[in-house]
Design a protein that fits this description.
This protein is an alpha/beta fold. It contains 8 helices and 19 strands. A hairpin with a 5-residue loop joins strand 6 and strand 7. Helix 1 runs parallel beside helix 7 and helix 5 packs parallel to helix 6. Bound molecules: flavin-adenine dinucleotide (FAD).
């Protein structure tokens, strides 16, 4: 638990909320711009990549363990002068500048600019063996992990556009893709559905849900799933080497409800080609505003943009951002 502190709010030019690739990159850029940023790490220091194993699409590393990559990003942010604070933001007041940010420990900050990098969490199924095999055959990201399943059999769970797109993407690697959906029709748009159903590598399992994942412990490997018929309740095994769970993501934006504009799924809305939110001086980067790419490198890129925009905002005010975009 963070140490309990109670004192005057600490003043800062840039306050970054979140310590995933977006937050650390924003911290590195803001620190190198001599803005002495403070970064509040949150419950998951390092963000989503700390719960995965090999990452093979981070430029510059042929392969790197997710947790190691995030430790290196934190070290770099500290090295250039960012102050990384182990705390959780519990309340923000964006109604006037400087913005008030309060933390779980009792610490509070008055910030000239805020960069929101609170990310998103994949929805999981909550199966008995799911956590055990996460990163070892169970994944929530085909773009990240599809490459590991060349010539193998995979199962994808879900019925929306994401599930169908992930299943189609996986046909580029896997020899067989099982799509498992608990209803008898997909929610995905018709064009995607037609492409999926016409693909010879895809087999659909209607009215089916996953009861559990099966595999070996040494080495940790998925060998199949148990399917349950949603109509009859009957179960049956389905052999596969990987399970992709594509039932959506939840952006971490509850904290900003009523203060920052969000779309109907809760993702923060930013101006085109910018990280500027609906409140001048508050910027958003990474998965908290991006439901399209959801990658470490895109989150880092947006973190860089947010820091540069915060710097411009501090120097010239909100109008500088629109001028820069012209
Ligand atoms: C299992 C898995 C494997 C993945 N593999 C890859 C891969 O191989 N390659 C790839 O490019 N991408 C991969 N991704 C996706 C990648 O991890 C995300 O796109 C990326 O981490 C998003 O970065 P982010 O900085 O936006 O947010 P996140 O990484 O989600 O970090 C959010 C941060 O916000 C903090 N936070 C939240 N609420 C608060 C609060 N109230 N106060 C303070 N802090 C808060 C959290 O503690 C966390 O540090 C994977 C994701 C998962 C789940």
């Amino acid at each position: 638990m963070p140490e309990v502190q109670s004192s005057q709010p600490r003043k800062t030019q840039v306050l970054i909320i979140g310590s995933g690739p977006a937050g650390y990159t924003a911290a590195i850029y803001a620190a190198r711009a001599a803005l002495a940023p403070v970064l509040i790490e949150g419950l998951q220091p390092g963000g989503q990549l700390t719960i995965t194993t090999e990452v093979e699409n981070w430029p510059g590393d042929v392969t790197v363990l997710g947790p190691n990559l995030m430790v290196r990003m934190a070290e770099q942010a500290r090295h250039v002068g960012a102050d990384l604070v182990a705390d959780i933001v519990t309340r923000v007041d964006f109604s006037k500048r400087p913005f008030l940010v309060e933390c779980d420990s009792g610490a509070s900050f008055l910030a000239e600019t805020v960069i929101v990098c609170t990310g998103a969490q994949a929805r999981w199924l909550g199966l008995p063996n799911e956590t055990k095999f996460r990163g070892f055959g169970v994944s929530a990201c085909a773009t990240c992990d599809g490459f590991f399943f060349r010539g193998k059999t995979v199962a994808v769970v879900g019925g929306g556009n994401t599930a169908v797109e992930e299943a189609l993407f996986l046909t580029n690697f896997a020899s067989k893709v099982h799509l498992i959906h608990r209803r008898d029709e997909l929610r995905a748009d018709k064009t995607n559905q037609a492409r999926l159903l016409a693909n010879p590598k895809v087999e659909t399992h209607w009215n089916a849900e996953i009861a559990d994942v099966e595999g070996t412990s040494d080495p940790l490997t998925v060998t199949g799933v148990v399917l349950r018929d949603t109509v009859t309740g009957a179960t049956r095994p389905l052999a596969c080497d990987g399970l992709f769970i594509a039932i959506g993501h939840v952006p971490a934006t509850a904290l900003f409800a009523g203060q920052l504009a969000m779309d109907d799924e809760g993702y923060l809305i930013t101006a085109p080609d910018s990280t500027a939110t609906s409140v001048p001086g508050v910027f958003a980067a990474g998965d908290v505003k991006d439901k399209l790419y959801r990658q470490a490198v895109t989150a880092a890129g947006m973190g860089c943009m947010a820091a540069l925009e915060a710097e411009r905002f501090m120097a010239h005010g909100a109008h500088a951002l629109s001028e820069a975009a012209e």
